[in-house]
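Slide 14.
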Amino acid sequence: MVKRTTLLATVALPIFSLVWQPVEAAMVRPLLPLVEKSDVTKVQSEEEEIIRKKRKREDDGGGQNRRERNREAEQQQDNRQERRKKREAEGDQQQQENRQERRKKQREAEGDQQQQENRQERRKKQREAEGDLQQQENRQERRKKQREAEADQQQQENRQERRKKQREADQQQQEQNQGTWRAEDRKDQREKEADRQKQENTQKTREERRQKQRDAEADQQRRDADQQRAREERRKKQREAESNQKQDEQKARQERREKQREAEREGKRPDETAGRPRRERDKDRERIARDPSGTTDTIELPFTDGAAVLDSDKDWDNRRDRSRDELRRERKEKRRDVRVRVPESDRDAQVGWEDRDRVRYESGDRERGERRDRRPRYDERDGWRVEREIDDRTVINFDGGIIVRSDDGRRLSRRATETYYEDLPNGRIREVIVRPNGDRVVTIRNRYGDIIQRSRIDGGGREYVMYYAPEIDRDSRPTFVDPGERLPPMRLTIPVDEYIIDTSAEDDTDYRAFLDRPPVEPVERVYTLDEVKYSARIRDKVRRIDLDTITFATGSADISMNQASTLKRVADAMNEILDKDPGETFLIEGHTDAVGSDESNLVLSDERAEAVANILTDVYDIAPENLATQGYGERFLKIDTDAAEQLNRRVTIRRVTPLVKPVAMAE
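Slide 15: predicted structure.
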């Protein structure tokens, strides 16, 4: 609209005035509409000034004709229109720039306004937050003041309560003071009643004690009567047993005479086919056996022809370099300075072991091994010479004597589903026996076949250790050394019947309590199983049971089922001990009489020990890995005779757990 107004004022009106009005009228300047100052720019044109001056000259000079003036006017009008268009274009451009400038300023103003609003909003929020914080503080302050006011009120109430109680107490005290004489009368009366009641109670107590004493005397009389009847019953049974025994002995003597006559007819030795009667007791030996601590002499079994009690003493007596009397005198002199402390428990026996409470064994399958395709052969020790090999037993000549060595892996794997061997570092061998129930028996041996560790790992992964002697793995000695040689002669200080018991002696023997007893002297260190087997001095540290109810025939290791049943009470005791600690170890020793060669007797005695172990496993369900076997041939005779003797053909059991592993492991 503004552009149209400007065009009308600057172009159309001047042309119209020039055409239709007289020349004088052309000089009148058209009235232009007012325009906004911001839209039109006034310009003082030079042409207008020239036209004005020319018109004035024409008026003054008489003028020119109208046509020429009109042409000039049109020409001038065209020029003015051209200039106006140019000015309009420049004005439009200027307006555009002005509008852009205004928009820019407007946007900046809007941005400033937005920032201002943001700042105001932030200030508002800050003021609100400060107001909330102030309100929170005010509320806390009000609560604090309220609590203080309540505390003051509570204190005021407490003071009022105390004053009230004090007034009541004062009033009661006053009333009590007023009625003191009445209270004293009541007190005297109560004291008299209490004394009377006390006397009555005392009298009643005396009567009760007298009644209890009379009842106890009556019970004692009844017990004495019962004991008397029991003694009479036992005497009666004893007389009957003695009568039966005499009849049995008479019958046995008749049978032996009959067998002897039959043997004489067949040309056999009578003592090989007939049993001997029970040995007669030696009174002097029995007196010493009841208290061996009173002498340093060699203690002998308390019956006729009884050999030395200790296997280590038997070893000394068997030496060939001097007479038996000289050897016994030497031991007697050495025992004079020996002081023995009998341990109270297995742990007490191992007192003095360095860091024994911190012993922690390593699992038997802790190392990765390389599977072998056959059974291993172990290295021979220096000084050992193989004399003979029979099945899985080897007779070895060692240090002037002979021993038998067997591989118990065959006995342990009789019920196995798989047995395999693995090579471990440092020449060690691991034997793994897998049972049908998932149990694994893991045995680690050094290159000489000595057992470093044996354990049973059940299906749940729990491990029970039987032997644990890792020292021999770090100190693998090529020569076997008897550790008993470094110890003084053993001095027995407990009664013989507490050190050795026979299964045929008494029917009321507690085998579990006997086997569970600790060693009879302190144990210096953990010994390997081979050291226990081949050292009588170390083996003597623990007690033994002689299974003399099992009677082997000459040259035989067979056990009848009737004789196997005599092992039941001993086997039950062993199972009770294993229930408490499945890692216990029992050594079964086999013996022969002096008839036959040393080599054959060694092998026979080892077979007898293994036969008893198999009976304990097959009949009484004792795990074979809890049993170790060793045969000693005729080396440790019970009856000191070179003839055939039934009591020398025997098997012995010892619990050797405190010798072959730290007790702390079982606890």
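Speaker note: The first strand starts at residue 370 and ends at 371.
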